[in-house]
Amino acid sequence: MFKSLKIYNLLFLRLLLILSGVEIAIYFFKKELIFTAIFSLFIVFFLVREMYFYVRNFVLLYNKTIASILQNDFSSDFSKHKFNKNYDDLFTLYDTLKNNQKEQVSRDIIYRSILNNIETGIFILQKDGDEWNIFLMNDYFSKYFDVPKISKWKYLKNHLPTLCEVIEDQDFQEIKTSLEIRVNQENVQTFVMQTSRTEICDLDYFIVLLDSIQNVVEKKEKEAWGNLMKVISHELLNSITPIRSICQNLQDLVDQDTMSTEDLEDIKNSVGTMLRRSDHLQKFIEGYRKLAMLPSPKKEKIELQYWVENSLQVMAPLFQKNQIEVINTIALNRKINVDSQQMEQVLINLLTNCIYALEDSLNKQIIISAEAKENRTFIRITDTGKGIEKEIENKIFLPFFTTRQEGAGIGLTLSKSIVEAHGGYLAHKNENGKTTFELCLVED
């Protein structure tokens, strides 16, 4: 503000000098001092000329700076004018906006780089009046669907009519659905589409994400196989390494000319250890065979209560031995269409897990409940144990994963496979220090 007043004061001073010069010239003309009057006018001319260039340079500099800001052109160099303190505010504004633009460009490059490296098709629409234009399209979408990076919605409709019709039918509102799209005029693939709409600074944006179900499944399969191979290699090495070490020791003993009583005792112990590790490997392979060769369920209608009571009766001695209270709150009079033997094994596996979870608990309770919703039956088994640690929550259904020294690690995996073979699902959750396994069965 004070710098602006300084500029105005300088302009006012110049005007005052010019007017004073004109008055002096007129005064000398009246006194008939012609040469003095002409000299005064000459000085006035120079003052007017100086003021003209001062105002002209001032206006040109402001216009050039403002034009650069309005056009987002920050390539101009004003360093030669920076010695003039009258323009400090203007140059501070220019430099601030220039730095802001650099930061914005850097962020845009980073965001675009991130979007272009994501294996998900993404494009963003921006509303312009009554029409939508393509604001951004990532490289994956462009390459996967063989679509050039166009800017008009109507051009995208020519390339992917099925996709665009779904979006238009929903009037560019939020959607989460699956649809089939023909890729490269050959293969029809199923995609999961998720959209969202948002307004930023009075601008309307519509974001579309497309994931190939095939790619998602393949990714999950690779992760599952990777985890499985880690577990299998861990189990095999745990048995093969000590067996090989024992064999080496036995070889050294056999190569001796004479054998003492201590050597014979060592051989007996070594053979015993080898047998135990071999038994462990046999159980491990048997568990794998059970998972790999799970027979198709032979379904029949059975009473829900009958199925639960049968399983509880089998487990009753273990409950009594471990002093566990079982509370069965199921009051549903409902039939379920299942393979009774397979589903009984599922319930026994889950109850066995509860027993181990309650080993160190003071309040040992297992609560069984059920709920029916339309064609779905939910059976919940809750224990008051210590719960499942967050670090292993995503691993409990992996084959051969176990936290028990003597466990085979196939109980939950087998149970999940059996339930899924019946068209249902098996899940778990931790609530208020309790672990609940939820078994959902869907009636055909």
The number of strands is 12
Determine Rg (CA atoms, Å): 42 Å
Look at the structure and give the mean pLDDT: 77
Main β-sheet description: 5 strands, antiparallel
Give the terminus-to-terminus CA distance: 80 Å
Enumerate the spans where pLDDT stays under 50 for 5 or more consecutive residues: none
What is the molecular shape? elongated
The tally of helices reads 11
Strand order within the widest sheet? 2-1-5-4-3
Q: Indicate the percent of residues in helices.
A: 40-55%
Provide a descriptive summary of the structure in words.
With 444 residues, this protein is α+β, with helices and mostly antiparallel strands. Helix content is 54%, strand content 21%. It has helices spanning 2-30, 34-70, 88-116, 139-144, 153-159, 161-169, 213-254, 261-292, 304-321, 340-357, 411-421; strands at 121-128, 131-137, 176-183, 187-200, 203-212, 300-303, 325-328, 335-338, 365-373, 376-383, 425-431, 434-442. The strands form 3 sheets. A 5-stranded antiparallel β-sheet has the order 2-1-5-4-3. A 5-stranded mixed β-sheet has the order 7-9-10-12-11. It has a two-stranded antiparallel sheet with strand order 6-8. β9 and β10 (376-383) form a beta hairpin. The model has no long low-confidence stretch (mean pLDDT 77).
